[in-house]
User: Which sequence fits this backbone?
């Protein structure tokens, strides 16, 4: 099974399109925080993105993505995804606020994601769950989700998704429970429940649960990324190439030296900008007010969620992609 972004808008039913959007969102959580870690291994400390760092790639179904580090303090990444043939545009940003609690590192994801189906004139707003990094003190870190995220569609469908984990006595790892509502079309909430890393079911109108999503059978599509030599100076794999190669070879001295060279160069650039009183601006993204991005979808989530998500939404401003014209050629 392969869940493609390009299939979200295919159904003529707004309800089925909403469920397809939920499937995509859940699968993206799995891809971001679980399936990317090889089986039998643990989370590793990532590189610290430099200001303006970019990642650009594409997939065989015609989907393109561009990401850029639009802020370093605090760290914020802007992202834009488009599939022109399918009429899908995704825009958003993701920042982090971290703190320690006991043996866990807790991370609030400050940001959002909007998904536009241009052929349906339909828009979705997604908020992001919080993370906990467990297992740090015994050198076996893994990510768990907690809290609640929300999805609001311009067609009126709404979902609240609660994330829980295994307790001392009961429960399971990576558990989620979503309640889908619509004031006119759903007399009772539809419940979607299971693991965001595995299987989940859908229960509608008190009927028997039916299969919803099985991520264990899903094929992971391979992104197409330009060769290192063809990448721009600020693209991730080019920036960190020497560090990554040294780590693969077990040459930690060289890796540390190359990493320090990158960091020292960034400090020098910051100092130079400060001396010249220059303001740095992203290449691909521009900052806009929240109203221009969310329309009335944010207010609808605020109303239905009793304002629970406002602290992690980052809704005062947002990062919008400037222009898609250079993306396709850059990722070939």
Assistant:
């Amino acid at each position: 099974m392969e869940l493609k972004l390009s299939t979200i808008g295919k159904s003529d039913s707004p309800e089925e399109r909403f469920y397809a959007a939920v499937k995509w969102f859940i699968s993206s959580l799995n891809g971001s925080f679980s399936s990317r870690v090889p089986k039998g291994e643990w989370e590793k400390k990532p590189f610290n993105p430099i200001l303006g760092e970019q990642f650009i790639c594409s997939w065989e179904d015609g989907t393109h993505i561009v990401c850029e580090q639009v802020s370093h303090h605090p760290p914020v990444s802007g992202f834009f995804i488009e599939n022109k043939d399918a009429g899908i545009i995704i825009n958003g940003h993701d920042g982090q606020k971290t703190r320690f609690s006991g043996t866990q590192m807790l991370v609030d994801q400050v940001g959002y994601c909007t998904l536009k189906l241009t052929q349906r004139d339909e828009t979705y707003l997604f908020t992001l769950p919080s993370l906990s990094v467990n297992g740090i003190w015994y050198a076996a870190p893994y990510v768990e989700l907690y809290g609640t995220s929300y999805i609001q569609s311009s067609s009126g469908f709404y979902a609240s998704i609660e994330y829980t984990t295994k307790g001392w006595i009961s429960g399971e790892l990576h558990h989620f429970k979503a309640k889908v509502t619509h004031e006119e079309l759903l007399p009772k909430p539809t419940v979607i429940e299971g693991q965001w890393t595995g299987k989940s079911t859908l229960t509608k109108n008190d009927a028997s649960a039916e299969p919803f999503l099985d991520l264990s059978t899903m094929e992971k599509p391979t992104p197409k990324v330009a060769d290192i030599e063809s990448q721009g100076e600020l693209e991730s794999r080019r920036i960190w190439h020497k560090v990554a190669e040294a780590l693969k070879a077990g040459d930690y001295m060289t890796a540390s030296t190359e990493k320090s060279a990158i960091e020292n160069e960034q400090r020098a650039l910051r100092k130079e900008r400060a001396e010249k009183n220059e303001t740095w601006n992203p290449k691909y993204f521009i900052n806009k007010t929240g109203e221009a991005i969310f329309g009335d979808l944010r207010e609808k989530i605020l109303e239905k969620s009793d304002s629970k998500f406002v602290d992690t939404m980052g809704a005062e401003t947002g990062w919008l992609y400037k222009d898609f014209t250079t993306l396709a050629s850059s990722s070939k």
Observations:
- The CA atoms of residues 30 and 171 lie 19 Å apart.
- The two ends are 26 Å apart (CA to CA).
- Confidence is low (pLDDT under 50) at residues 324-332.
- The longest helix spans residues 252-276.
